[in-house]
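Researcher: I'm preparing a figure for a lab meeting and need a structural model of a single chain. I don't have an experimental structure, so a prediction will have to do for now. The sequence is pasted below. Please return the structure as tokens so I can convert it later.
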Amino acid sequence: MAKMIDGLLQGFRLHRLNRLRDQKSFLENYLPILVKAIRDREERRIKLARDRDGAALRGPALAAGVLTPALETERSTALANIEERYRWRAKALAQSKKRALSKSSEDMVVATFAVRTEQLEHQKQVDLESVGRRYAASQGDLAAAREAFRIQAEEVHAATDARLAAAKAKADKIIAAKTAAYETKTDELGRKIEKVRNLLIANKSDETNALIPEDSLLSVRNLSMRFGGLMAVDNLSFDVKKGEIFGLIGPNGAGKTTIFNCITRFYRPTSGEMLYRKNAVEVIRLNDYPVHDIIRQGIVRTFQNVELVWELTILDNLLVAAHTVYRTGFFGQLFHTPKLRREEEVMRAKAFGVLGTLGLLPYAYAIPYGLPYGILKKIELARTLMAHPKLIILDEPAAGLNDKETEELAVLIKKIRDDYHATIFLVEHDMGLVMDVCDTICAISFGKKLAIGTPAEIQSDKLVRSAYLGEES
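Model: Understood. Here is the structure written out token by token.
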């Protein structure tokens, strides 16, 4: 009974710890968005005020023959519109001339359209001169008008500057208050997190420690997978350490993807256990979880074939992948509450950050159709980062890539491991990539383990060389 109560208390503490961490992470990520929104609002206010100044000074500026920046923009836009309009008219006239030549004599058509072209050019010049006159100075004492304009402009700008300075001071005060409040709340959450975490560690059972090694994230034990009379995976065991890049290699048909499918529960293994360290005090048995719950444990994967939502933009593909990390409940989603909108802003900012990390920002609003294969593979990799992964499983990430793209992928995998503090577990046939990025490699053949060790140890192993190169062991 006491053991059951302790288990319930530990479960409650874990739930509270996760909730506190989510709140702290949200506050840390939302504060920059909030500050940017205040600054953007301030920029819009400044632009609106300057536009109002330009409108108020338009008449005096025209009377004084002074082309203010606003008038210069207005004049340039009017001239550009005239040029564009007459360009299309000239194009239409050329098409009419082409059709007329097929029906009438050439001399008459040429003469007629020469006159029409001349008329069109004359009308264009008239319109351009009209714009010039509209922005030219009126008659009278320009020196007096310009002095009056200068005085009026100084008064208008001084009044606007004073208003904007007051608005900026108010915005700075709001930002300082918000920042202080968010930092206080974050520090308070940090103390609560530390307190709950210490309680969890202090009450951690020895049984949990004994399940898998302390430094391991995933432990596969005596895994077997049989399809009818075919043994695809045969009594396989290995451990994946936290923070490492673990490679699984083997000839075609060795059972590599089958192992991935067992870990992510696409397949139900015939026998064996898959243990996963979800956090510092909780080790779970993946065999007990359905496939749709695996991602909620912090395990994400890619596939050999690119799997995207082809009708959505790249940005929306990433946002779809973040659905498991939303904390807003059903009714919040239904009524699109302010809490949900703030959460969406945080997710959107994170998506842009991930796209920037992987060099995909130019494609943010593009549809996947027609993009190069290397870009599509990067998009699928970017999508895994939206779910706060602890373990990223990559199934042949370099398949279909050229040498340059493979080199970039090697750098990217290491960067993801370091920047996102994730463990990488990959299957790959490109031995150059495997030997370059992996800390530990497990070689299998026909579902059985041949060897496990560092890249140098795997390269020199006789069983591995026999399986790959046909050498005698």
